[in-house]
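Limitations

Structures in this collection are predictions, not experimental determinations, and the ligand pose is part of the prediction. Treat each record accordingly. The example that follows, with adenosine-5'-diphosphate as the small molecule, is included so readers can see exactly what is and is not provided: the inputs are given verbatim, and the output is the predicted complex.
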Amino acid sequence: MAAITRLVRTTSSISYLARRCLSSSAASDANSHAHRCNTSPDRNVQWVFLGCPGVGKGTYASRLSSLLGVPHIATGDLVREELASSGPLSAQLSEIVNQGKLVSDEIIISLLSKRLAAGGAKGESGFILDGFPRTIRQAEILEGVTDIDLVINLKLREDVLLEKCLGRRICSQCGGNFNVASIDIKGEDGNPGIIMAPLLPPAHCMSKLITRSDDTEAVVKERLRIYNEKSQPVEEYYRSRGKLLEFVLPGGIPESWPKLLQALNLDDYEDKRSAAA
Ligand SMILES: Nc1ncnc2c1ncn2[C@@H]1O[C@H](COP(=O)(O)OP(=O)(O)O)[C@@H](O)[C@H]1O
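Predicted complex:
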């Protein structure tokens, strides 16, 4: 309970800086809202990324965060930092994460509150959340304390998700995220194929690559199962509030990034920003 009260305090203190991208007619479709969203340089977005493990939430959230100048806050990273710190929660978290289960709402909200408070103290405003909310309860708590402008729901077929999770690599030195999976699925029965080139590290990272301990086949399958059970209802939660933008990834970063920017009406954002300067 204390953690939730803290989240209330920290998110309310930053929410006044947010501008609503979506208009108040919540029943309207988020896709058309997103097209009309007039992002300006003084705007601090409060966006959420949803999507299955391996879909690329981290990649696209991090790119958008650099483009828009707002922090990218991934609760999975907060959990991994806590694990690495060998703090009081670390043994308990390690068991949960390595089984592919969700950490309790209390713990995740406590980690998120601390992160938001630390950002607030540094003058951060706006955010792109990645990996939160993952349960209806988390969504309700978030909705109760702040205005989420837009929820981007990334989609990719399940066989690709598994391959992408198994191909994930992190450089133990620079922390860079890479992917060695090479996806080339031919279209069949009227369904389109999909090609995703690997995202290979530079030569100096090659010998330092590590794999997340929860990116094994059994654990990824369990995480996908849990996503369908606990997190898919969160999509419906935001859809019914007119905040959900569905985005089916057409391929790797080179094809998907420009199309995502287009869907968000951000394709000429840099030009708009320089024109306004
Ligand atoms: N919002 C959350 N609620 C509960 N557990 C979470 C949440 N975010 C992250 N976790 C925990 O951290 C793990 C890693 O999260 P993340 O890096 O987002 O993985 P994924 O690749 O599955 O999206 C999850 O499997 C879960 O145990």
